[in-house]
Amino acid sequence: MNLGIETETLEFKKSTGELKEAVQSICAILNKHQHGELYFGVKPDGTVIGQVVTEESLREVSQKIKNSIEPKIYPEIKKVVIDGRDCIHVKFEGNQVPYFANGVAKIRVADEDLTMSPEQITELILRSGREGNRWESLVSNKTVDDIDEELLKKYTTQAHEVGRIAISYTDKETVLNQLELTEGNALLNAGKALFSDDLVQDVQMAIFATDERLTFNDIQRHHGPVLKLVDIAESYIKSNIHWRVEFTGALQRTEIPEIPVDAIREALLNSFCHKDYASGQSNEVAIYKDRVEIYNPGAFPEGYEPQDFIDKAERPIRRNPKIARILYYSKDIESFGTGLKRIADACETAGVRYEFKKMKSGFVVCFYRSEEKADKSTDKVRISMDKVRINMDKLTPAQVKIIVFLLENKKITNKEVQELLGVKDSRALKILKEMTDIGVLVKQGKLKGSYYVLNAEE
Description:
Elements: E1 10-13, H1 19-33, E2 35-40, H2 55-68, E3 69-70, E4 76-82, E5 85-93, E6 100-101, E7 106-109, E8 112-115, H3 118-128, E9 139-143, H4 149-161, H5 172-178, E10 182-183, E11 186-188, H6 189-195, E12 202-208, E13 216-223, H7 226-239, E14 243-246, E15 254-257, H8 261-273, E16 283-287, E17 291-296, H9 308-311, H10 321-329, H11 339-350, E18 354-358, E19 363-368, H12 376-379, E20 382-385, E21 388-391, H13 397-409, E22 411-412, H14 414-421, H15 425-437, E23 441-444, E24 451-454
Parallel strand pairs: 1-2, 12-16
Antiparallel strand pairs: 2-5, 3-6, 4-5, 7-8, 9-11, 10-11, 12-13, 14-15, 16-17, 17-19, 18-19, 20-21, 22-24, 23-24
Helix pairs in contact: 7-8, 8-11, 14-15
């Protein structure tokens, strides 16, 4: 069987022994057409000869492409049988031109892969920066049917109530079209990121045992619409930092976090708003003993420093203007280009030390935690209610949070712990068991009807 001749979007390699040359061809095709196909086990004239295909050989192809091409791409690699012979088929696409294979940019001309000149690379960069070529403006692999309609309804209502759009919710097709997030029935990438679930929108969260990125006590990963991920990450941080309680004599007490919640949410929103979604990297939340870091895989604008947007009236530089505009409509971000200043102002008001870190791979907002585990006004006291007396000295912030909940609500279920702390079922069960084992809680009921109460002294 013969597959025909090689073209500007189709390449043949006799075997994975030509993997290095295959990577160059993929790079060249991407720079010319942004999509293409490649077969291993086929001669340049299209004759199918096949090759041995194993899980190891498929993994080798995947890793070679991942490690050799920048920016990263994530092709579809699979075994195919053509005329009774095993071959490997690689289907790839990417819009973040120019692409480099081991540091060299190639361009496809007919069936050849030619090295690009500096002038060609410059021209490609200039063309890729146009508004129509931004990742968020490209048509995604999702349709209107893939959106979270309840989330869209909630968003539309909020944006309408704050007075930034005149749109009222009618149906998903109409609203998404009015927000300029669709092309026909397809979602643009901006619409997918905000209102649909996809692996490209994800956050990895971890609690580390020390001040270094070595041993972790908890790690979680979530993917979904950006607006939901912000809520998940905010809840995770709030549940794992210290809070102090101030009693003013009124019935309601005041709970004060060691890091301002407004600053946390602003940092998270900025993290997703300015993310380089085409990089394939995750947003990250890292909680250490001495600090909380929020990482955004999107390099800070070249030629600028974070302080420029705090002290000076610099105009905003938006990596994803469509996403920023939608978040502005709902007042999730207050105004363009003021995020860093709002974080700085909130931290300075609360007396919290902060730092903005520029990295080659992205940007980090760092909140430094207080040296003490909690404010002396709460950590060294005993909380009392009737016969309940609990020494708070040796309890974790999560355990304290559960006790505060119980002082108001008398009992708590596993499901309520999950919601309160932003943790999964297994983590909630572990925390409740630890508190039961040390005698702080008592389990009542059986199976699905079980719940926990504070252990009252006799």
